[in-house]
Write a structure and sequence with these properties.
The chain has 14 helices and 17 strands. The chain is α/β, with parallel strands linked by helices. It has two domains: 139 residues, Aspartate Aminotransferase, domain 1 (Alpha-Beta Complex); 256 residues, 3-Layer(aba) Sandwich (Aspartate Aminotransferase, domain 2). The strands form five sheets. It has a seven-stranded mixed sheet, sandwiched between helices. The chain has a four-stranded antiparallel sheet with strand order 13-14-17-16, covered by helices on one side. Strands 1-2 form a two-stranded antiparallel sheet. The longest helix has 20 residues. The structure holds pyridoxal-5'-phosphate (PLP). The site of pyridoxal-5'-phosphate has 13 residues, from helix 4.
């Protein structure tokens, strides 16, 4: 595709052509929660179940070989998409949450003990907080939460200070905040952390769908993301891990497919990534994710990023113009995520009123309760944009918000 044609992109998503309510078209602004699926992904799922369905890595029959080839081809596509050195660095999981729990339960349980520090941030999704809290309760290490500055960026001076104390073993931070939209400089954090002898895990759940991610350039040790937020199916996610680190990690879940040999006196384990994929994996979902990667690659991640940056700037300008509406997070480098408050109207009411205008947004704490507490808020309303959204949809959204604030001011 020579240039980004949003109308053509929209045509690839069947759900966008069905009405939301009787005669109101759908404006889907809940992409941060999950994205819609293009026909190519739906077709990949149907194709697999219709023509190639079998279990992977087990059968010697033709269908099983086809299923295995398609599953491993998806892994190669994902590896290329994030510029991993090898497909062996790509572990399929159920999603970002499981990827982070995998690191906590394998690398974390083997390496973290009393006296150590895990450095994370106040802006994390619960998926990158709770696993560390659970493990800290068991292993006795400390968690230090990096503060967020008034513009919504991380306090990097504090990061340098804490890292210089020499007790941090892991920095676990989000690449992009699902509330503030802030895009954190993972590369800078990696440099600081590695100089202090710590590894870095980045949560890419809100990054991969709108920005090219190059794990080699970032030099990050672990990178976690979900397929369903990047136009792929639910039930599939990725943990990227540097090969030497994955190879040194013990398994987490035990069962079929993750072993080398099993006797009644014990077992030895397969090399990564199989070591971390016990049981029948989400085969169709991985193949669907491969189709989503192909779809995004055909659009071009630079074009996708340009479209969403432009749209985000357009939406921010609109929202800045509406009295009583306050966007949280003012980072210059930001994801297409706009969380906001409307003076005097509860976020749930805002979301409900927008829904009646056909606009799907999210209201609540967005699984970031500590961040909301830090902001002095209980909840926000969040519009999060995707590749099929348009300026005209932003206009409708802004007008609906304007009407809402006017009605309320009366
Ligand atoms: C920043 C961030 N991390 C992690 C997650 C969890 O993703 P999943 O529910 O797909 O595991 C989300 C989902 O909203 C997120 O926004």
């Amino acid at each position: 595709m020579p240039s980004y044609e949003v109308s053509r992109v929209r045509g690839d998503f069947p759900i966008l052509s069905q009405p939301h309510h009787a005669d109101v078209p759908l404006i889907y602004f809940d992409n941060g929660a999950t994205s819609q699926k293009p026909q190519a992904v739906l077709d990949a799922l149907t194709q697999f179940y219709t023509h190639h369905n079998a279990n992977v890595h087990r059968g010697i029959h033709r269908l099983s070989e086809e299923a295995t080839e398609a599953y491993e081809a998806a892994r190669r596509k994902v590896a290329r998409f994030i510029n991993a050195a090898s497909r062996r660095e790509v572990v399929f999981t159920r999603g970002t949450t499981e990827s982070i729990n995998l690191v906590a339960n394998t690398w974390g349980r083997a390496n973290l003990r009393a006296g150590d520090v895990v450095l994370t941030t106040v802006m994390e999704h619960h998926a990158n907080l709770v696993p560390w809290q659970m493990l800290a309760a068991e292993r006795g290490f400390e968690i230090h939460y990096l503060g967020v500055l008034p513009d919504g960026t991380l306090d990097m001076a504090e990061a340098e200070r804490v890292l210089s104390e020499g007790r941090v073993r892991l920095v676990a931070l989000t690449h992009a905040s699902n509330v503030l939209g802030t895009v954190n400089s993972v590369r800078t954090m990696v440099r600081l952390a590695h100089a202090a002898g710590a590894l870095v895990l980045a949560d890419g759940a809100q990054m991969v769908a709108h920005h090219a991610v190059d794990v080699a350039a970032l030099e990050v040790d672990f990178y976690a993301f979900s397929g369903h937020k990047m136009y792929g199916p639910t039930g599939i996610g990725v943990l990227y891990g540097r090969r030497a680190i994955l190879e040194a990690m013990p398994p987490w879940m035990g069962g079929g497919d993750m072993i080398e040999t099993v006797t009644l006196s014990g077992s030895t384990y397969a090399a990564p990534p199989a070591r971390f994929e016990a049981g029948t994996p989400p085969i169709a979902q991985a193949i669907g994710l491969g189709a989503a990667v192909d779809y995004l690659s055909t659009l071009g991640m630079e074009a996708v990023h340009a479209h969403l940056s432009e749209l985000t700037a357009y939406a921010l300008a609109w929202l800045a113009d509406i009295a009583g509406v306050e966007v949280v997070g003012r980072s210059v480098k930001r994801a297409p995520v706009l969380a906001f408050t409307v003076e005097g109207v509860h976020p749930h009411d805002v979301a409900q009123l927008l829904d009646s205008a056909g606009i799907a947004v999210r209201a609540g704490h967005h699984c970031a309760m500590p961040l909301h507490a830090h902001l002095g808020l209980v909840a926000t309303t969040r519009a999060s944009l995707g590749i099929y959204n348009t300026r005209a949809e932003i206009d409708t959204f802004a007008q609906a918000l304007k009407d809402l604030t006017h009605v309320h001011a009366r």
